[in-house]
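Re: weekly structure request thread

Next one in the queue (366 aa):
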Amino acid sequence: MQSPVELDAWVARGLRCSKCSAPVELDEQRAVLSCRHCGQETELDRAEAVVWHDAKAEEPPAGAKRGTAGADAGPEAVSCAHCGAVMVRTRGALTSQCHYCLSSLAVESAEVDAEAFDGIVPFSVSGEVARGKFAAWLGDAWFAPGDLTRAAKLEELDSIYVPCHFWRLRARTEWRARVGILTTAAEDLAAGHQRKAGDPGHVRTRWEDQTGTIDEPTLEFESASRVVLTKQLQELGGFDGEHVVAYHRGFLGRRDAELPVLDRKESFARMLERLERSRADRAESQITAERHKDFRATTTTQDTKVRLALVPVYLVAYRYKGEAFRVLVHGVTGTVCGDHPLSPWKIGCLLVVLGAIGLSLLVALN
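Done, posted below.
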């Protein structure tokens, strides 16, 4: 179990050169911390994060306590009264608005406890590239107004590290269902199934039990953010274990990181509920019979391990004709997901086309 650490140890604030104590800056492309004063460079280790915690163990002790704000104090924790997000603020940053909802932030005066990070997924997409990905996404948006790319006003392109629990486990799903098999009297007789006396030789449905098992290792993740949901991260394409490297505060550079608001127990419950649904859907799709009923699936887990890591996300806020929209950009792949306005004219044309197709099919059937 990881021992508690001071919040100063896991945010990139006031990072100093080990040689001359001057401030250092992060070169994300090379993963190098550079000192402008003496020129010393420190290469950050991109080796895979190997720290995994036994999920059956007790909750980790609260790590990362901060002091009160001040010139010589530890990092500030800032909170949003509107959406509830709590994050650590990089030293010298002029953070005055929430990254998520753009409301005003307030500096916390009380201590904040949080689970210590085990790993991090460094940004590999620059802000310039993220801006280009967003512009291309706007241009390709289906059913969006034709002037969206020209009229959309970009208000913010920000970056933040979002906390996630990564779960590594073996999941076994056992399922059972009653499947309906269409048979003739001759087929029943050949299979040794006797029909009642006087039963005609028409096709009928014979119900039989069918069972199956899905037993394999899996890697899941669950957002520990108050604002960015797991579903949104999945829409971006998710983050797999290959992206996660051993945590070092230097990877944060001068970016903000949101503190986790979800403990391991609740994170596991949410992850398991989602896994059970996906496994049940997968198991039901394996049924080849035309009809089935009384489907049941039970998923059990073992060898469950967990680690907490930060994942990189760009937050884009833009306005179109006075209405605000929010978009997310994957900090590694550049994948974009989010909301955009809809064109009433395009939607109307679609409905007309669908109506015409439906009418033609109805005429053809009659």
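The longest helix spans residues 264-285. Helices lie at 127-140, 148-151, 185-190, 230-235, 264-285, 344-365.
Next request, please.
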